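OP here, attaching both records as promised.
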Amino acid sequence: MASLWHELQEQWRNWAPILKVLSVLWLVLAVFMAVPWVVLILEEEPDAQAFATSIGIVLGAVVVSWLATLRAEFYLKPGQMFLVTTLSWVSISTLASLPLVLGGPSFPSPMRCSSLYQQSPRPAPPYYKISMFCLTA
């Protein structure tokens, strides 16, 4: 039992600096997620709730990981640096996609787009532009 505890402590010593660096990166992500959140609040958009929830989840992960690694050394070995690079790309991409997962973009349906064409009394010009995710004339 003592050897198992010693093994767990040794493994934690290897993972704690990695988690500490990731928590700092997640904190930066939460700060940058606050910028669109403020804009959404000012514009009174319904997706502001999804951003607020996402920021709360990210900050919760930062607090938990920072408190768990409070006494850990801030020294990374070369192998750990490679792991930090990979985990930072994966975790930041995952956490940054939370507002899309929680709020979900509200794209108009193709039927709604086609009804825009049918209501137009004028013929469509030979060129088209993308407007509000619909192909419009």
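Record two, same layout:
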Amino acid sequence: YDIYNDGWNSIDARYNFFNTLDPVLLEERIYDVNDEAAKGLVNISNYTVTGIYPMDNLQMHGSIKYGNTQQSPIANLDLYRLDYTNQIVETISSTAAGNYSFNTIHNGYHKFDGSNADFGGVNSTDALLIMQHFTNLNPLNGLNLDAADVNASNTVNSTDALFAMKRFANLIDTFPAGSWCFLSDSIQNIRFYHDSINTNLTTLCYGDVNASFNPSPAAKGLNEHNIQLHLNTELWCEKGMELEIPISIQNHTELAAVSLAFDINCRNIEIVNIQSVLGENAPLVWNVSNDQLFISWFKLEEVKVTPGDALFKLQVRVTSELDNQQMNWIELNPARCELTGLAALPIANIKLEVPHLQQQLGGFYLGQNMPNPFKEYSTINYYIPEAGQTMLSICDLFGKKVMQLQNIYQESGNYSFTIKANDLPAGVYIYKLLFEGETMNLLDAKRMTIQK
């Protein structure tokens, strides 16, 4: 038996010993094998004589469940028994049903830890909750508070929120605190005294403050909140062009945290930058990794959005010509996505839109308005091959002009115009684009329907 003091100050220790002639008990000693000169002293006092306890092969067993509402069992979690120097002395794995059992424990105090099971659940909503705790808007407690301290600083603040956003965006693959968080009193300094212990453990992934992760194999890849992505409007492009591509929403809602994950199917497109359209002074983290795009954003106040509003704008560069298989250039990974309000509750049935890319080979293009029919807003996309005057107007079915949308000079490139349904009565209309360029004059028209 050793007395171990790894602090800077001297302490008093009660020592239960087996031999009354043990000289160690009668003098002041330094017990730090690494740096005796720098550490504190251990003053031995109040020592007694006890019997020698047998080294029983005791057990600690029970179940391990995730701290979510489903109390999901955790399979294949590696559990460690540690000695007083935090060295691993025994390793086991939880079963498929989330059960575990240590079988060679002797009398005394023991510590435990775990790792290596599937990790998940960390996103912008957790960063929002961390900052709500830091600003005292919504204080955390218990295991959720422990899980928020991802940088192991013993305090929860904006650094932890940034770590959570970076972990979601795949900019980091681990936290300083590790991966799995247990309530400290459930795994630290558990005393064994002749009897085995049956205890059920609850854990969270570090950073998963709202316990949104479900480690059940049946839950993997599920689109639990029915988030959808549609490629509706058309955006024309050609090699060397730089485009601004909006990610728009088709819902009335209020947002405080957005976590989006996409699979990029086209390596001919380079994402140069991403800007938030959800207001200023709100953190935004994004990353492209292994043909995947991650966007993480939150704000400590809700932002109202309406159908057709852009959430983010992607600045992209077309590095080479596209083929037909690359037109559907982006797909949503809905299992990784979550949009919430200030209450940090997921919003279901979100519909997102991005443009469908078309190869532009120097022609003139007027796209179909999207959505069509529409009740509130619709967007018209068009492409002009050279600089010139563009005149966009709306006519009735007899060709009579009922509204002039724009009459402006524009350089060559992609453009869009948003129509408001409340500007016109319900009905069927024709919209026309007249282009007068430096070397050509062009006209195209399409039909649209307004519903009330």
